[in-house]
Design goal:
Phosphorylase Kinase, domain 1, Aminoglycoside 3'-phosphotransferase, Chain: A, domain 2, 41% helix, 15% strand, binds adenosine-5'-diphosphate, binds the ligand N[C@@H](CCOP(=O)(O)O)C(=O)O
């Protein structure tokens, strides 16, 4: 569950009184999510999401995340729109935490994405990349790109083999391949960087919302595509589903073409994306605080994906032709 900070009705009423959202009708904590405390608010003006930012979010990054959501929403992307208080300010403080009220998005996330869901995701991802192209008000370095991986490995290497035999050596080998060969010079811009199925809402087959922009940053656009191929196109048995990959990539390319260089780099980018999530999951898995209510994500899922990418010989294996 993800409510780390309790908020009393009195605190919330006082906070809400600085907004033009009417009186509070109801509020409840949201169990999903792992990073921040989220609440569903019902006020006289409708439904909203209240987020209290917890320890892993750097307050210095909040203007980037909030500015980005405002920018994307203004360009027609279905993402949470930060709500400003009567003084025109979106970011406030509640229960000692930085706090944001944002618009509520309708729809539900899918557990097992279909081919049609993958295609819709590809279209939405390319739309997000295009809409973010002129977001220049601020920028954010991707702390979880190549330079961030080795420090994570250092934290995990001594105990990695308790998760899977040989894992420590395999990660060391990956780092020695990826660090010197990581693509450069590809088109870059704002990426979501965590557009997993739990962060995408559908109503039927229609994609109705993208949420959780708290890993967004400036990085290679094709790296975001690689993150999504990893998150959307593998089956529960660990097999890559080329039909889903083909649908995702083809839909993406109808909105934002991929260059030959980006396509050629896909195998390396997919490997890197798998390693990035393997590493963060591994560190979290090995450091679950006693009594924690949040269940860490399984690092072995990303180990299986990484093994697939190591066996890839051509971008065509992902369902794309250059
Ligand atoms: N704007 C929104 N509209 C509707 N539901 C939302 C919205 N933002 C968050 N949620 C709900 O809150 C849950 C957790 O949000 P998320 O941003 O993924 O949290 P975390 O960053 O803590 O992982 C989501 O799974 C969703 O159910
Ligand atoms: N998507 C990441 C974990 C981040 O969780 P989120 O709830 O903030 O999307 C993973 O699967 O490892």
């Amino acid at each position: 569950m993800a409510v780390y900070t309790d908020v009393s009705p009195e605190q919330l009423e006082a906070f809400l009184s600085t907004y033009d959202l009417g009186r509070l009708r109801a509020f409840k904590g949201i169990a999903e999510g792992v990073e921040n405390s989220n609440f569903l608010l019902q006020t006289e003006a409708g439904s909203f999401i209240l987020t209290l930012y917890e320890k892993r979010v750097n307050p210095a990054d909040l203007p980037f995340f909030i500015g980005l959501m405002q920018h994307l929403a203004a360009r027609g992307i279905d993402c949470p729109q930060p709500v400003k208080n009567r003084e025109g300010v979106a970011l406030g403080t509640l229960a000692g935490r930085p706090a944001l009220i944002a618009t509520f998005l309708y729809g539900t996330s899918v557990r097992r994405p279909s081919v049609a869901n993958c295609a819709a995701l590809g279209t939405a991802l390319a739309g997000l990349h295009r809409a973010g192209a002129d977001f220049t008000a601020s920028s954010r370095v991707n702390a979880l790109s190549v330079p961030g991986w080795r420090p994570l490995y250092e934290q995990a290497k001594d105990r990695a083999d308790t998760v899977a035999p040989g894992l420590s050596a395999l990660i060391a080998d990956e780092l020695s391949v990826l660090e010197p060969a990581w693509p450069s010079g590809l088109p870059a811009g704002v990426i979501h960087a965590d557009l997993f199925p739990d962060n995408v809402f559908f109503t039927g087959e229609e994609l109705t919302g993208l949420i959780d922009f708290y890993f967004a940053c400036n990085d290679l656009l094709a790296y975001d595509v690689a993150i999504c191929l990893n998150a959307w196109c593998f089956e529960p048995d660990g097999a890559y589903n080329q039909t889903k990959g083909r649908a995702l990539l083809a839909a993406y390319r109808t909105v934002r073409p991929l260059s030959d260089q980006e396509i050629a780099a896909l195998p390396m980018l997919c490997r890197g994306a798998a390693l990035r999530f393997l590493l963060t999951r591994l560190v979290d898995w090995l450091n679950v605080p006693p009594g924690a209510l949040v269940r860490p994500h399984d690092p072995k899922e990303y180990l299986r994906k990484l093994r697939f990418h190591r066996s890839v010989t051509s971008p065509a294996d992902y369902g794309v032709a250059s």
